Inverse folding.
């Protein structure tokens, strides 16, 4: 049986990073989101951090009102962010770990250790109509806990694999790829929809797309960086092509 088409979610955080570096309104992340959809993105991801270092509340309000494709609201599992999700009511809410001092998300959410706190927050998001996703490591314990907590989606952290590939560490890269593959298989067996994200580029997205249990990739930093050289539309179209090539191999 042919694997289903793999969806591409484009993260626009770093359009806002460039805007905020100078202040003012440009470049506009909402314009980037609309362009991404026109170029073939299946959805838009935006992470509203507690310190508002890139995406702002006003961006989320505009995205909620102007997008023609699903909005995936990446967020810390805090009461403040839950309340904002209840206000904006995005299609999806992806709970991620967040530390003020980090430059980007480092590793997956500790769903096992935070089970008691996560349960009621997941329930609030679901009551607001959000499809909840948990950003976790591709290991058995967090995957099982995600299913127990009732989240319908997990997004597996691909950073360790992508970093090993970039570093040329073939043995570690192979081990991390097997970890992702087995994690995706286990999550699918438990009835979870499986997404992936963090550090993916054309080559790693193409390879990971060959694992049929993945339904969606969320990619941001690489695409915004590549857009400097070829434009955002061309970067997204090339990523779509790479993912389709990889999925065909499944």
């Amino acid at each position: 049986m042919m694997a289903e088409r793999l969806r591409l979610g484009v993260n626009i955080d770093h359009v806002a990073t460039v805007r905020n570096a100078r202040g003012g309104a440009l470049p506009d992340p909402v314009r980037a989101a609309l362009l991404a959809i026109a170029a073939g993105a299946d959805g838009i991801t935006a992470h509203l951090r507690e310190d508002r270092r890139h995406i702002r509340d006003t961006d989320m309000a505009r995205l909620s009102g102007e997008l023609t494709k699903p909005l995936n609201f990446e967020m810390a599992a805090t009461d403040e962010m839950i309340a904002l999700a209840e206000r904006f009511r995005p299609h999806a809410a992806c709970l991620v770990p967040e530390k003020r001092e980090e430059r980007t998300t480092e590793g997956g959410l500790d769903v096992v250790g935070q089970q008691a706190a996560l349960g009621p927050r997941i329930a609030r998001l679901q009551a607001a109509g959000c499809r909840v996703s948990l950003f976790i490591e591709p290991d058995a314990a967090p995957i099982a806990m995600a299913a127990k907590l009732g989240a319908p989606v997990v997004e597996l952290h691909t950073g360790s694999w992508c970093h090993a590939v970039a570093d040329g560490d073939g043995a570690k890269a192979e081990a991390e790829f097997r970890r992702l593959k087995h994690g995706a298989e286990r999550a699918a067996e438990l009835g979870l929809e499986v997404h992936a994200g963090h550090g993916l580029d054309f080559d790693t997205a193409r390879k990971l797309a060959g694992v049929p249990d993945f339904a969606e990739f969320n990619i941001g930093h690489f695409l915004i960086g590549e857009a400097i050289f070829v434009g955002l539309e061309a970067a997204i179209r090339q990523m779509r092509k790479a993912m389709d090539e990889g999925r065909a191999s499944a």
